[in-house]
Write a structure and sequence with these properties.
The chain is α+β, with helices and mostly antiparallel strands. It has 2 domains: about 80 residues, 2-Layer Sandwich (TATA-Binding Protein), CATH 3.30.310.260; about 210 residues, Endonuclease III, domain 1. Helix content is about 50%, strand content about 10%. The protein is built from 14 helices and 8 strands. The strands form 2 sheets. The chain has a 6-stranded antiparallel β-sheet with strand order 1-2-6-5-4-3. Strands 7-8 form a two-stranded antiparallel sheet. Strand 3 and strand 4 form a beta hairpin. Helix 4 crosses helix 14. The two termini are about 35 Å apart. The structure holds a DNA duplex.
Length: about 300
DNA sequence: CCCCAGGTAGGGT
DNA sequence: ACCCTACATGGG
């Protein structure tokens, strides 16, 4: 990874095996938006960043070299050896080749657990553009305005306290549909949920957050798929394999030889057995490949 | 009009 | 343990 800083608020970067656009588009995050010129702007932990790709170089606007090293490098997961992950995946599953080829450059971002928790409850039986729209709306209404060198109006993802008082009807008025009652329950349950994270943060020495799928699924609106997405994108657990319509199609296509009658539990078990601690990365490659190559 | 979307809950055999 | 369906909303 190479960094250089020509003027204030601006950084040039080269990183092998990191493709920001694929990473933004692989469905892990909902607050990175493409501008008309093809660049992306995102709001993360109260910070705004503008990302432009030019001549094989990544241009970052809105941050300093110090903040980049302290914050963005970790968020973009730049220290992980993705080539090694791909090598391990191909060793245990050569049929992953096409998915890895199309998804090469995807990084799994280190996102805020609370934001992931709420966003993926909204995601159930919903499409990505509408999920993004709802997340943007609640940020504008209940988040805090951010001042940034990046032109535009920006709002942070709301803190739990800012949404604690919302009634089911108020959620419905935000067009979340039947997920309104889920969200009321989820925000209520967050306290006990985050307490579990805190306890583990205190008892373990590493900066590792851990949440069990079981405890997550006690919350109404969180089933196996959403729970594993919260684990994968909101904690540092990577031995999880969220199964949605696209990943199911990809697994049926590549691994089960078109056998449509495979249960999700079976797919989950097989994937964890095969990929182990790399399961989350395998899942991202499969999801991205299916989304970009499968018509239906 | 239909079907689909990063699914889940609740009810039936 | 395994089906089946309703569920809001917007887009194709």
């Amino acid at each position: 990874m190479q960094i250089r800083s020509m003027e204030t608020d601006q950084i040039f970067m080269n990183a092998p095996h990191f493709d920001p656009v694929k990473s933004f588009e692989c469905g892990q995050c909902f607050r990175w938006h493409q501008q008309d010129d093809g660049s992306y702007t995102g709001v993360v932990s109260g910070k705004v960043l503008h990302v432009r790709i030019k001549d094989n170089t990544i241009l970052l606007l809105g941050t300093s070299e110090q903040e980049f090293h302290e914050f963005w490098a970790h968020y973009f997961d730049l220290c992980r050896d993705y080539a090694a992950i791909q090598g391990r995946l191909l060793t245990v599953a050569p049929w992953m080749k096409p998915a890895i080829t199309s998804g090469d450059g995807i990084h799994i971002f280190c996102q805020n657990l609370w934001e992931v928790y709420i966003s993926f409850i909204i995601s159930s039986n919903n499409n990505i553009s509408r999920i993004s729209g709802i997340v943007e709306t609640i940020s504008r209404l209940f988040g805090e305005k951010i001042s940034s060198p990046v032109p535009g109006e920006w709002y942070s993802f709301p803190q739990p306290e800012a949404m604690e008082g919302l009634s089911e009807q108020e959620w419905r008025d935000l067009n979340v549909g039947y997920r309104a009652s889920f969200l009321v329950d989820a925000i209520q349950s967050w306290h006990s949920c985050s307490q579990e994270v805190d306890e583990i943060l205190l008892t373990k020495r590493k900066q590792a957050a851990y949440l069990s799928s079981c405890s997550l699924q006690k919350v109404s609106g969180i089933g196996p798929k959403v729970a594993s997405c919260i684990q994968l994108f909101g904690t540092d657990q990577r031995n999880v394999f969220p199964i949605d319509v696209w990943v199911r199609r990809a697994m049926i296509h590549f691994y089960y030889q078109q056998n449509r009658k495979v249960r999700d539990e079976t797919i989950q078990q097989d994937a964890l057995m095969l990929f182990g601690h790399d399961a989350g990365f395998a899942q991202q490659y499969l999801f991205y490949h299916a989304r970009t190559h499968f018509t239906k």
